[in-house]
Amino acid sequence: MISSEHDLLDQVFPLDTTRDDAGALVIGGASCEELAREFGTPLYIYDEATLRAACRGYTRALADAYPNALVLYAGKAYVDPTLLQVAASEGLGMDAVSSGEVRVAQAAGLPLERVVLHGNNKLPREIDLALELGVGRIVVDALEEIEIIDELARRRGQTAQVLLRLTPGVEAHTHDYIRTGAVDSKFGLGLDSGAAEEAVARAMRAPNLDVMGLHAHIGSQIFDTEPYADTVNITLDFAEHMRAAHGLDLRDLSPGGGGGVRYTLDDDPPDPADIVAAITSTVLARKLPHPPRLLIEPGRSIVARAGVALYAVGTVKHIPGVRTYVSVDGGMADNPRPALYQSKYAALLANRTGDGPPETLTLAGRYCESGDVLLRDTVLPPLRRGDLIAVPAAGAYHMSMASTYNMVGRPAVVMVSDGQARLTRRRESDEDLLAVFP
Ligand SMILES: Cc1ncc(COP(=O)(O)O)c(C=O)c1O
Questions:
Q1: How far apart are CA 198 and CA 189, in angstroms?
Q2: Main-chain dihedrals φ then ψ at residue 153, nearest 5 degrees
Q3: N or C: fewer beta carbons within 10 Å in the chain?
């Protein structure tokens, strides 16, 4: 066992990941070797217990501190109907960004009033579908959306309940945290530019809109809690000003998502309870006569740890004195994060324990791109064709960002619980890919 394996299993892999007597990794009671045999590789494995525990990390903290709240799972992190049913059964709603995501919520039987539709350029047909299906909130992201949503609601004889997305001048990413006056973002309505106030004024006048509240999302993979408190204060200051100037009645306050996760042992993310405490204590400190409902939108921090990517080793190329490339049967098309963001990951040999001194190697993908490298200079036991490699913290922004680059179908997804695995998304075949051509 390499020295960090214990810590990886304890802190990065799904809860209670172990090895069986033959040395295979066991996730949710299911052996990775048996899962690979039954479902093939690459395979994405989601552990139901870890997913539920992460949902509860938010819901329990809120139940204690601020019960008038709804946790919206950010479907962009990854969504399929089974996974969403689990989240829904934990009381969550969903942050959707397309008609496709709304339809997954519908397929999962999630009450659609618990869905919020976001997007900086929602198509009119997507807004119309949201109105038709009774999606709970539509988030106005740009001034011109006010008239578009108002008109679509008028045609349906409905009132659209909307939130306005602010660009609050807080930008957070990991430990970088910037507060600026000028905001350069494609999302939202700027406070300093006056767009946010103009949006309030116009939306309040729009006869078919009910402005329920304000939203702000300041970034992702955030490791500090202070930016959340700042965002809440900035948003509540603005709401107070808008109440006086335009009669805004703030019924919903949505400080977005963004909680960081541990991809490797070097990451030290906050506990969801700390994020919740930063938000709720800031709201409560204002002693508002009518505190708004809180909508919190974590994606990654709910689902990242629950997911593991399982690959099979193919070719092994030693370049003496340079590097050893071990190529697996997945790569940048199912996990674009290393190529896009230089993201770091960990990995373990998953079908057996190692039988030699660990080696430094580079785990490459199968795609026709030199940059298709999943892990550079990682330390693993000597690997051979057919070995299985498990990459943890793979639950968020892998399968949801996956492509069919090189005309390779996307992997299958299973959910494991109590030793049972159910297929939640089937592997795409060559026939699936060819089916798009007329
Ligand atoms: C509006 C909004 N809410 C929530 C999220 C989820 O962020 P995360 O997965 O980092 O929690 C995002 C991510 O981009 C977002 O844009």
A1: 9
A2: -70, -40
A3: C
| 349 membership: H or E segment, kind and range | strand 348-349
Instruction: Give dist(CA 155, CA 149) in Å, integer.
Output: 10
| Residues with catalytic roles | 368
Q: Where are the domains of the chain?
A: 5-40+306-434, 49-302
The reported pLDDT for the residue numbered 64 is: 92
- Divide the 438 residues of the chain into consecutive groups of 10 and give the mean pLDDT of each group: 81 97 97 98 98 98 97 98 98 98 98 98 98 98 98 98 94 72 80 95 98 96 95 98 98 97 96 98 98 98 98 97 97 96 96 93 97 97 97 98 98 98 98 98
Number of residues in the chain: 438
Select 5-40+306-434's CATH number: 1.10.10.60, 2.40.37.10, 1.10.3720.10, 1.20.1260.10: 2.40.37.10
SS3 state at 202: helix
* Ligand 1 atom nearest 259 alpha carbon: 11
- SS3 call for 393: coil
Give residue for tokens 């990854």.
78
Confidence at residue 172, expressed as pLDDT on a 0 to 100 scale: 83
Query: pTM of the prediction?
Result: 0.97
Residue 258 Cβ inside 6 Å of ligand 1? The answer reads yes
Residue labelled with tokens 């399968």? 399
Residue 217 CA to ligand 1 centre (angstroms): 7
Q: At what angle do helices 99-108 and 124-133 cross, to 10 degrees?
A: 20
Ligand 1 contacts CB of residue 213 (under 6 A)? no
Token pair for residue 416? 């494991």
97 lines ligand 1 (CB under 6 A): no
Q: What is the rounded CA–CA span in Å between residue 26 and residue 230?
A: 42
The CATH H-level (homologous superfamily) assignment of domain 49-302 is Alanine racemase (3.20.20.10)
